Amino acid sequence: MIKTLFMGRKTVARKCLSWLLKDNRFDIKGILTDNDLSTSPVASLAYKENIPIYSYDKALELASKGEFEFGISVLYWRKLKGPLIFKNTKYGCINFHPAILPDYKGFGGYNIAILEQLKKWGSSCHYVDETIDTGPIINVDLFSIDPLIETAKSLESKTLKVMESQFIRIIKNIRKIDGKLKSYPNIGGKYISRKEMELMKEITDADDPEIKSRAFFFPPYLGAYVKIKEKKMTVITQTILKELAKND
Q1: I want to staple 212 with a disulfide (CB 3.0 to 4.6 A). Which of 78, 92, 138, 224 is the partner?
Q2: If you write DSSP's letter for every residue of 159-208 in order, what string do you get?
Q3: How far is 160 from 142, CA to CA, in rounded Å?
Q4: Is 115 in contact with 212 (CB distance < 8 Å)?
């Protein structure tokens, strides 16, 4: 059995972990997640299945002692470093990134896809190296989108469905060859930091309010905004309100 450290958050990570637990080739030795949140989907499954949930530092310590030989990250939120990269193991560490690599690294992928009026979006799987989203690419699953209709929230939903299917296929391939998969260099693209993403939310005179509102519509978080008496007020266009009413 492959001694595995699973790292992830959100419902898609729980679904991936649930599928992985049914495959007796993988021995889930520990979990890294946002277990401090009472609503953490991954943490609740780990508790149910009696899988240890570790702090980041504890996982680092155990990885350095060889307690794991394979790392899987599904939307895990912290930068992995040192032993958690599993650089010298047979299986390495893979990460599932909700954007097209090598073009879109870091944060704000859904927002950029809409702002730049892209016709295609995707989910990427890559090996983890010392920096964020720069390791060799294993696979990119593309799908069509309409940026005039999508919001950041709807695009996330579509991307994570693709990611779930991609996860199952990638894991089956790793199981089949019992080692690292073929990959190619992750060169170029641009990295957006969380701070840069937050700065992009402000609506200026040069912006199209409709497009920007869609690009940052992701409740309950602050969306595209204008400042009124130094207070940030989220802008939701009439088109989005009508769509919400249809789905109510």
Answers
A1: 224
A2: HHHHHHHHHHHHHHHHHHHTSPPP-B-----EEE-HHHHHHTTB--TTS-
A3: 12
A4: yes
Contact 91, 179 (CB under 8 A): yes
Tokens of 156: 């996330």
Cβ neighbors of 56 (< 8 A, separation 6 or more) are 32, 78
What would the two tokens of residue 176 be?
């089949």
| Residue 32: burial class (beta carbons within 10 Å; 0-12, 13-18, 19+) | buried
Q: 11 with 29: CB under 8 angstroms?
A: no
Q: What is the pLDDT along the chain (248 residues), one digit of tens a residue?
A: 999 999 999 999 999 999 999 988 999 999 999 876 667 899 999 999 999 999 999 999 999 999 999 999 999 989 999 999 999 899 999 999 999 999 999 999 999 999 999 999 999 999 999 999 999 999 999 999 998 899 999 999 999 999 999 999 999 999 999 999 999 999 999 999 999 999 999 999 999 999 999 999 999 999 999 999 989 999 988 888 887 777 66
β-pair partners for 231: 228
Q: What is the biggest distance separating any 2 CA atoms in the chain, rounded to whole angstroms?
A: 60
As a whole number of angstroms, the distance between CA 59 and CA 30 comes to 8
